[in-house]
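User: Structure tokens for this complex, please. No commentary.
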Amino acid sequence: MIPTPASVKESNVDVLIIGAGPAGYMAATWFARMGVDARIIDKRSTNIVTGQADGLQPRSLELLHSFGLGYHVKKEASVGYEACFYEPDEEGIIRKVDTKPEGVPGISRHNGSVIHQGRIENWFAGAIEEFSQGSMRVERPILPESLQIDASKLDSTGAYPVTIVLKKLSDESASPEQFGHKVENGLYCQFQGDQVAQAGEPAESKEIFHAKYVLGCDGAHSWVRKQLGIVHAGETTDDVWGVIDIVPITDFPDIRRRCSIHSKNDGSIMVIPREGDLVRLYIQLTEVPHEPGANGVSTSGNPEKAKDAGEKARADRSKITAEAILEAAQKIFKPYTLEVAETRWFTAYQIGQRIANAFQKDERVFIAGDACHTHSPKAGQGMNVSMQDTYNLAFKIAYVVKGLTKPNILSTYEQERRAVAEDLLSYDTRLAKLFSGKPGEVSTEEFRAVIDKGSAFTTGCTTNYESSLLVDKPSGLPRDVPYSSPLARNLPIGIRIPDAKFITECDGRPWFLHEKLPSNGHFRVLVFIGDFGRIPKLKANLNQIGTFLSMAESFLRKYTCREEESPIEAMLLHCSPQELVDWGEFPLAFRPRNSQRIMDYWKIFADRPSFHDETINGYRTYGIDKTIGAAVVLRPDGHVAKVVEPTTEGIMEINEWFEKFMIRSAGN
Amino acid sequence: MIPTPASVKESNVDVLIIGAGPAGYMAATWFARMGVDARIIDKRSTNIVTGQADGLQPRSLELLHSFGLGYHVKKEASVGYEACFYEPDEEGIIRKVDTKPEGVPGISRHNGSVIHQGRIENWFAGAIEEFSQGSMRVERPILPESLQIDASKLDSTGAYPVTIVLKKLSDESASPEQFGHKVENGLYCQFQGDQVAQAGEPAESKEIFHAKYVLGCDGAHSWVRKQLGIVHAGETTDDVWGVIDIVPITDFPDIRRRCSIHSKNDGSIMVIPREGDLVRLYIQLTEVPHEPGANGVSTSGNPEKAKDAGEKARADRSKITAEAILEAAQKIFKPYTLEVAETRWFTAYQIGQRIANAFQKDERVFIAGDACHTHSPKAGQGMNVSMQDTYNLAFKIAYVVKGLTKPNILSTYEQERRAVAEDLLSYDTRLAKLFSGKPGEVSTEEFRAVIDKGSAFTTGCTTNYESSLLVDKPSGLPRDVPYSSPLARNLPIGIRIPDAKFITECDGRPWFLHEKLPSNGHFRVLVFIGDFGRIPKLKANLNQIGTFLSMAESFLRKYTCREEESPIEAMLLHCSPQELVDWGEFPLAFRPRNSQRIMDYWKIFADRPSFHDETINGYRTYGIDKTIGAAVVLRPDGHVAKVVEPTTEGIMEINEWFEKFMIRSAGN
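Assistant:
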């Protein structure tokens, strides 16, 4: 046992998040939004201020918007619309051979955007502060010292089975080594901060947390992962890449488009335009000095590092300078000139591809993000998949902690996110090989074909969760073939609901439905009742559904003491013309009054043209027949969980489905 | 002369703004944005927190967006899309007779929105702080005591001819009387704060300002207007209206749409849905107690008030309660029920229609907003026209103060804004008569026809400035018939440029052009060169224009020492397909490098489909022939000033036009 001097503070907490990168921040944002007692710690004394990840893919942008953070992106980020491909001609001179759309047109309202990771973390910090009304914020610099799970408490929902000892560092010892800060040669070294490196650091104080759940969002060198004895399987490749953020001076005509440039003999480069005048270049380095004790034997005296490097020779990153990276870039850019008005940041990395052999222990301690999977930054996925990991996980923990669901839903985290990690590594492997290959060795058409095929995957909008307690579809289906009910042909079950336009019935205002599906923790039942104004049978169905939803046995009522606090929200989406609709005849279940008798006007939608927008098109977009309709269950993360007929029988099926994991409130 | 004790602080300031309502804030925002030495004072100790104006019309929304404040509106405001008209049927029961679009579909990207005036003022306060880097903010509570213009200094641009003595009040004496704050019966009385009322207030300190320019944005009872001896001509009508902000409990089906309801015998009501659950009701009061000493003889002992009331009997507003207003509303709403969950604010007013007989004195002291014109709130215009007044005025003063233009442009303020005020009063008179008229007396179809006709006017997007130094078109044209050059048929000269979609050439990103025309003080020359990729003559024109613009004699260079600080910006908008365009061949005038040689990529646009947006349509929207093109001058307020051919001759014409009011920089 851990010695506990009387002066050490000891607290209970429902959830402890270790690590305030994108995965940790996303989890904290969910917990703050859902009112969960959570704390988040980080070993660094401040947010990062330059470099690191910078690409926000469309699905991540949807998540930011769903938490009300979208306007920051609009204001600050660079948005990508086109991608160019340059290849050497017969004389070895690079030529533009193709221009393609960036991403997949129409897959999302948002195009892939680029902004410094530190800005994103700041937005999250603001959201956490706002949602928690100031009670939650990242506590730093704090280092975890030990983690123990008490097996005897695992089956008790009220217990705190995980004990973590934390040590508060002095600010100075925890400053990350960033460009211009500590490292003289300008090389950015990811702050390791593991126990070996930090053993000698003086602690200002210690604190013991007893937690119901712990999330390890502590990066590629995850301390949590090591405590759990989880193996990070995979290897480091030979490829070494330099990354540099510059304000360029160039006659290259596509410097504000994303570009892939393959040169004949000088390697490859990726051009990523960023906010303001900045451009990021990823450059394959062909001449790299290696550490003297190569082949797995590190000279640093740090066995962890050697293990992380796998079997490959380790590049000596300290020998790689901004000048060397830029020189390599200039060779590839020829005959175009490339000078630099300002160098903002640079680093070098050797690509490692690894995946953790478990994402959790005892369904009490979870790891997410880089702690689960590492890969190259080529597809711009790292930060995105990390955020999406905890976007998947945190609402489930929140439901369990709040006593709304049984813990049985937690197993879906690893099931769902491991599949994504595997797909990502597989795509990354193909991409890295093609990208590093010299023209002639790999077909450049093959290269573009892989990128084409991967475009939808990299948007994050096609992530397809398999059959489970939270995804009601046949099991054993292939992940890359979407499965839909014939009732809603374009709403594949397991995939996030695509966006579509409706108007609010009460005021005729056009909306993208996503705007009305904020991440607030609600499961949602969307009743697409069809053209009930013209079809009496549908109107009868609507009335019957309304009656059922008002009963104590309905999912709207039985999981809550007060209806207005129901974790499940019902929305009605019809497609009848206005003259056939009478507001007073809509069932009250879809326009409920709160305890002050104030009506909620915002749950009834119509698919019909607005005076101001002719393109309202929800039913067609979703592939729903206006004479039949559909009832669709959405999870709190927006993924389609279940599709049934919009009848009492269908609604009863949904009612039974919720019973599998929801817990009735004590008042019911 | 004013006695100046040694202890009184004395300062010079380029511009002093008196009054921090919408007009004053808009002026301050412009000055902060353009780097003008300005100060803004207000007599109230805090921003208003409830009530007052709340409607933002489309043009006002465009202005807020142009200062980067649009996201606040998106986040907080209620947006109107539909308007309903209720009239009594033969049995006297109110029925919906029509539903119309709110505003004019397509006239702007933004629909009329509703948000409490205090929020808007807060957004402005934030913008001023940001633009001025913290150096400008509203100074309060401060009351002006005297204003003098020194005629001997009027002709000197460097002089400070206006002397204002200010007195700083204690916070308590300046608290506005608002609902729940001071007034026991809940009646809101506009804080008068003029000298009569404030004569006895103790001053904490005094300060003397010597200003080049003074703006009186001090409301309907403008102190500045009185100092200038300007007459506020017009009269108060008999109509008394109550206004109340409530959270309603009702079965009225259109409570979230804007409604006009005419009852048979109980008067009229306007329903304005607001942010959150709030709804504002404007109710015609049929039974109103009048002050005992009516007909211009006030019992308040305040002769100013009596004068303001004109010849009409003055309603005793203190007798009008929230209950009385609500009761009147309930009668009109019948057979629908109307209860109240919460009453947030209410007031009553007697409609006055007045216009100042001058908007300035010596072109050194100007008045704007309510100080120039008062009218009923029916068309939702007060705050909007007030903001648009100073949006018109302040950039002109900024140009003069910065020594960039001659003072001769200042006369266009009164010319342009008096016309708007006159149109507004004329519309308001018609509307008020129709609205107050009982069914049977006025045709309800006539009523709706007037509203239809007024819709475009009330959006603010069709404001048409007449021929002047800053609007180059034939004089004597009727204001209500737009005048366009055949080169740009849908860009009427004198009206703000409508919005249209283009892509940025450098990255293929779709934009609404308005997004690239922020209010930053620039005049802009938009060169629509046409399809120069296919038409050699246009390509030759482009090159010649590029050459001219790079010469010292061009308007881009001669009014500035450093080209990158030119007050005039040139933008190129072509319509050639990408494969016929070579970035390296665009003249450098449209992709200039700054002193660090960093290129500005954002001034070249194309009208061609984007991968992500098929609806790019700028040339068609503007009515410009792709084989001819046009060159269009925009003023800093976005109004079209001049249209010529996109040839060297056309550009030379523009060059000569700028000479009429611009001042060459000393370095040229």
